[in-house]
């Protein structure tokens, strides 16, 4: 029986060029996707851009550009980012594509047919920046302006004819769904936040706009465009060839296993999205994980504060894999994470250059000088088996991934790296030149440790780890998590290829 796994990033709003928050969400999703691939899963990994709505229309007008042309240019920067970040995504979707438009209009028609939509008049506070409607209690006044309490974004009073989705009808079913699916929303703090919001009472949701034209037309009504969030969320279905629910993609991969999102769009994914789906008789996704913000110091990164770290600039200076490792290790997944160039440099020096890189260089250099760069023979003693077997508990490692516990996963690897360095130091193979068998076994064990740790680091630093594994003639498409349980994977007398310095210390 084949194992399937469907993971998504948020589809990004291309009103400006990508920032570190976009990079973080994408790297996290890629991390999970790559792990599942080496664990034998068929993986569908989706990312893309959300290109409709008033915010996009105004951004294009500000640049004095045609809206579609503006979207084409900005969306391309996000598509290029998938290459820059070395993402393993299966698909990149744009909400201006015909396949997506067909999906959205079909979903609308089903909701309408199921009597989940009605026409009335909307009046209330709307944030163009957030593309969100807010209740009076969610608004405050700052410096003479009305703003959203949660986001700080400006809101404006809107009165217009609108179509409404009967969200209030789904309050009780949603609470029952959350109760029956305890891990639908993670981390727990986000789950509690959503449940509190829903228990506070749901009002019917305006799902169309008349005051602007940049969006997907409501079926059989050219005067209305579909509310951007009903439009955007449907992308997760569009990529699977919905509305054709009989095709293999849809049958194999829906419901999605994991939506990776930022906490600022939690309500849309954890309240509106499952309600839309249940109303259309479509199964909700299995899990929505709302991670925190990437902070500069104690502040959220923003253009106005001038504290944005450009991921492209960081990658150009320090390298992609260094950034990937740093973000996955140092940001407590699910919480806000403060990052800086100073912290990144310290991480590169301590973890990558001094710990991992040093282990690889020491062991392989020693093997070159004392084993003629060939995999030596071995005869394990108890010390060797203890440390080798410390990286064989696949169920434990899988549990980190299945619970989205990135930090425990990274902690496990770092612990094994320190233990491996200690093993090589304590065994002192340079003092065993009169005992060739023991020297060879120490070298073999150390190389096996590097192989195992490198496999675990593959989802974190794919480019670097592929280089290391190629030194042992292991190719990327051969990677398999179950090989961690084999302490004798390397073949005697196989050539060890030269490995260049992986990470240079930053002075």
Tell me about this structure.
Helix content is 46%, strand content 16%. The protein is α/β, with parallel strands linked by helices. It folds into two domains: 288 residues, HUPs (Rossmann fold, 3-Layer(aba) Sandwich), CATH 3.40.50.620; 145 residues, Isoleucyl-tRNA Synthetase, Domain 1, CATH 1.10.730. The strands form five sheets. A six-stranded parallel β-sheet has the order 3-2-1-14-15-9, sandwiched between helices. Strands 5-4-8-10 form a four-stranded antiparallel β-sheet. Strands 11-13-12 form a three-stranded antiparallel β-sheet. Helix 5 packs antiparallel against helix 6. The protein is elongated and about 90 Å long.
The name of the CATH superfamily of the largest domain reads HUPs
Sheet with the most strands: spatial strand order: 3-2-1-14-15-9
CATH class division of the largest domain? Alpha Beta
Q: Specify the structural class.
A: alpha/beta
- Count the E strands: 18
Task: Tell me, briefly, the overall form.
Answer: elongated
The main β sheet shows up as: 6 strands, parallel
CATH architecture label name of the largest domain: 3-Layer(aba) Sandwich
């Amino acid at each position: 029986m084949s194992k399937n796994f469907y993971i998504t990033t948020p589809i990004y709003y291309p009103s400006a060029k990508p920032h570190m928050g976009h990079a973080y969400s994408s790297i996290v999703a890629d991390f999970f996707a790559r792990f599942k691939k080496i664990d034998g899963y068929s993986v569908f990994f989706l990312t893309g851009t959300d290109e409709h709505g008033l915010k996009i229309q105004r951004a294009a007008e500000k640049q004095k550009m045609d809206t579609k042309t503006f979207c084409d240019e900005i969306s391309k920067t996000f598509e290029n980012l998938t290459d820059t970040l070395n993402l393993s995504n299966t698909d990149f979707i744009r909400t201006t594509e015909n396949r997506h438009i067909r999906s959205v209009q079909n979903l609308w028609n089903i909701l309408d047919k199921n009597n989940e939509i009605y026409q009335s008049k909307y009046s209330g506070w709307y944030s163009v920046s957030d593309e969100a409607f807010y209740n009076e209690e969610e608004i405050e006044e700052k410096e003479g302006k009305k703003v959203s309490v949660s986001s700080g974004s400006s809101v404006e009073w809107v009165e217009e004819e609108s179509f409404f989705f009967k969200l209030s009808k789904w309050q009780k079913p949603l609470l029952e769904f959350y109760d029956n699916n305890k891990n639908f929303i993670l981390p727990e703090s986000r789950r509690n936040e959503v449940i509190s919001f829903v228990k506070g009472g749901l009002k019917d949701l305006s799902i169309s706009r008349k005051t602007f034209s940049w969006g997907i037309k409501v079926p059989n009504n050219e005067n209305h465009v579909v509310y951007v969030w009903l439009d955007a969320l449907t992308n997760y279905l569009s990529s699977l060839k919905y509305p054709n629910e009989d095709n293999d993609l849809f049958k194999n991969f829906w419901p999605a296993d994991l939506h990776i999102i930022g906490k600022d769009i939690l309500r849309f994914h954890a309240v509106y999205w499952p309600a839309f789906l249940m109303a259309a008789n479509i199964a909700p996704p299995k899990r929505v994980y709302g991670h925190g913000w990437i902070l500069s110091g104690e502040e959220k990164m923003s253009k106005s504060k001038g504290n944005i770290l450009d991921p492209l600039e960081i990658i150009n200076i320090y390298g992609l894999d260094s950034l990937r490792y740093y973000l996955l290790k140092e940001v407590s997944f699910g919480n806000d994470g403060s990052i800086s160039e100073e912290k990144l440099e310290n991480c590169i020096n301590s973890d990558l250059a001094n710990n991992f890189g040093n282990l690889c260089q020491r062991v392989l250099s020693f093997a070159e000088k004392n084993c003629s760069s060939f995999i030596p023979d071995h005869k394990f003693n108890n010390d060797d088996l203890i440390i080798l077997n410390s990286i064989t508990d696949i169920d434990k490692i899988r549990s980190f991934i299945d619970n989205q516990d990135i930090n425990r996963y990274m902690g496990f690897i770092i612990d094994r790296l320190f233990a491996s360095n200690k093993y090589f130091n304590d065994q002192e193979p340079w003092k065993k030149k009169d005992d060739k068998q023991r020297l060879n076994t120490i070298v073999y064990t150390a190389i096996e440790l590097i192989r195992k740790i490198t496999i675990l680091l593959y989802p974190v630093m794919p480019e670097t780890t592929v280089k290391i594994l190629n030194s042992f003639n292991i190719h990327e498409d051969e990677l398999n998590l179950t090989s961690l349980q084999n302490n004798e994977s390397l073949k005697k007398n196989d050539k060890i290829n030269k490995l260049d310095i992986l990470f240079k210390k930053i002075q």
